[in-house]
Amino acid sequence: MAFPPALLSSGDWQILMQGLDKHFGVNASLDAKSRDQVAAFLDRNAGSGWTHSADSQRITETAWFIKKHQGSIRMLLKGRIKSLVDCLACHKESGAENPI
């Protein structure tokens, strides 16, 4: 699932785009033209400030995500959901096109 670009800062998206061959354990490499187009889109639509940034580049570790998803974090700790990146587990009303 693709996440909305506003969930990470431009700098974090740049780091992620540079390491697509090992994107959280998966090879998500793109051809050069596609990579450049995606990178430009992410840069134009990125979040701003420290609340949308994480040393790990994980959306689930940004201050914004943690503040907004306390209930989801509790559900994860209780085993009621399997992963914080399974947005549709909680955002059922949003639909697949706009999970956030």
Write a short abstract of this structure.
By secondary structure, the protein is mainly alpha-helical.
Mean pLDDT comes to 88
Spell out the helices and strands N to C. HHHH
Oligomer class: single chain
The helix-and-strand class reads: mainly alpha
Largest sheet properties: none
* Low-confidence region ranges: none
Question: What percent of the residues sit in helical stretches (DSSP H or I)?
Answer: 25-40%
SS summary, helix count: 4
Strand content: under 5%
Please give the radius of gyration in angstroms: 14 Å
The overall number of domains is: 2
Choose one word for the global shape.
globular
Number of strands: 0
Distance between the termini: 12 Å
Care to describe what's here?
With 100 residues, this protein is mostly helical. It has two domains: 1-58, no CATH class; 69-100, no CATH class. It has four helices and no strands. The protein has helices spanning 10-18, 32-45, 63-68, 70-77. The chain is globular, with a radius of gyration of 14 Å. The N and C termini lie close together (12 Å).
Keywords, separated by commas or semicolons:
100 residues; 2 domains; 4 helices
Topology:
Blueprint: H1 10-18, H2 32-45, H3 63-68, H4 70-77
Helix pairs in contact: 1-2
